[in-house]
Amino acid sequence: MKLSKNFTNPLAANNPVIVQILGICSALAVTVKLEPALVMGLSVTFVCAFSNLIMSLLRNGLPSRIRIIVQLVVIATLVIVVDQVLRAYMYDVSKQLSVYVGLIITNCIVMGRVEAFALGNKPWDSFVDGLANGLGYAFILVLVAFFRELFGSGTLFGFDVLARFGYTNNALMLFPPMALIIIGCIIWVHRSINKDLQEK
Amino acid sequence: MAINKNSNVYIITYTVVMVVIVGALLATLATWLKPKQDANVLNEQKVSIMKAFGEADANFDEVVTMGRVAGGKFTTIDKSNAQDVQAVFDLLGNRKELGEAKDNLPIFKFEKDGASKYVLPIVGKGLWGDIWGYVSLYVVDGKLKISGIVMDHAGETPGLGAEITTPGVQGAFADKVLYDAKGEFAVRMQKGGAQNEHQVDAITGGTKTCDGVNDMLEISITKYKSFLDTLTAAVAEDTTAAEDAATVEEQPAAEENNNVEPENKEE
Fold first, then answer.
1. Alpha carbons A26 and A106: distance in angstroms, whole number
2. Best residue in B12, B21, B29, B34 to probe A by mutation, most A CBs within 10 Å?
3. Helices (H), ranges, A90-122
4. I need a labelling partner for A34 at 20 to 30 A (CA). Which of A136, B13, B64, B209 fits?
């Protein structure tokens, strides 16, 4: 029971982006198109899940004084793996994501989960927690990118959707502030459904 | 046996072991993926060049003649010489060096239906970072014109300067005449809209990037000026000759590795 709650919680009720407001920077930067947003979401999911797993495996022998350094080394290694693999097998997407793949290292969600969860829990639980948090992040990214690509370029995954109805692209959707506004709207909808999240 | 996990010996050993493992892992991965990554970069260069020619579906290796322009003369590069070919692509990949190169400049030639097009690499600075690409030139009615252009950028603003990568903006360069009546370089992205056969509409909100594109085109193309002048003259002469004599026989190139293009055309 606990495991499934670990998994579903970060997807909605405790979503890292719209509840904890983490990882906003990259959410603004890579959500102009769906494809890079999806790849970015999956990359963060991979890094988050495996950094949680590895740190959880290492947690008993870890010297607490260099805890953060070890975390960074593990996360950075995984990010470099993702970056190298993308460059080799998804060259176009890796070009669109440019520096933001490297910046996964600084994504607060990843280190936040390692520090808050993986260091105190068993490997499998930690892996699921990382996976769920990554997917929660990926879900919001894809949702934002869906609206931005649809109304900004009239396409979805590069296929014409609105253009055939004579839709004029709204360039405002392509600017970073629009991602912030869309995330704001998602938070608004989310909080009006989950009333316990509303601040008194 | 209790180990003191906060002792210096433990921490140093831990760090050393960790770094060695991680280093070995990443080095192996990078070595293993390098050929694939290099192939991607090379392929992208070739596809961009073919796009500039307007022949995106054609195979670069089969239809394009690679060359260098030195002292205003076109020298063919033997494609079976992997070292020379690699040197050209390495130069294309190194934007700083390419921008500073003064002579022995890379050039690509593509022939179709008896007409030749030449692609030149272009590099410059946009608002936030490097911009680069390939421009394809040809001679029509004695005038040197742009046949196609492909541009890319490192970090221009999406929706504004980054629009230089869109087919809309790049397509507008087609058939623009390079030099005006005075022989001065005249192609530019013009704020307020194109006024003549040389100008292209600038991008609203992307003025700095458009200025960068203007400089990039002028500086990069001017390096090839003496070759382009010879080419224009040769093609013009060729056309006149073709009108005079009904048949023009093409003579085989004397030396494969050193055939001087414009002169060959004068027969």
1. 10
2. B29
3. 91-97, 99-102, 108-116
4. B209
Mean pLDDT rounded to a whole number for chain B: 85
Among all chains, which residue has been given the structure tokens 């990118």? Answer: A145
pTM, 2 dp = 0.76
At CA B50, angle to CA B45 and CA B54, rounded to 5? Answer: 145
Q: What is the pLDDT of residue B121?
A: 94
Nearest to A88 among B18, B22, B33 (CB): B33
Tokens representing residue B69 in the block: 């322009």
- Is A160's Cβ below 8 Å from some Cβ in B? no
Distance CA A147, CA A110 (A): 26
The helix or strand, by DSSP H or E, that contains position B79, with its residue range, turns out to be none
Using one digit for the tens of pLDDT, what is the confidence trace for A5-53? 788 888 877 888 888 888 888 888 888 889 889 999 999 999 999 999 9
- Contact status of B17 with chain A (Cβ, < 8 Å): no
Domain boundary assignment for chain B: 53-234
B188-190 and B199-201 beta bridge pairing: parallel
Chain A interface mutation, best of B5, B38, B160, highest count of A Cβ atoms under 10 Å: B5
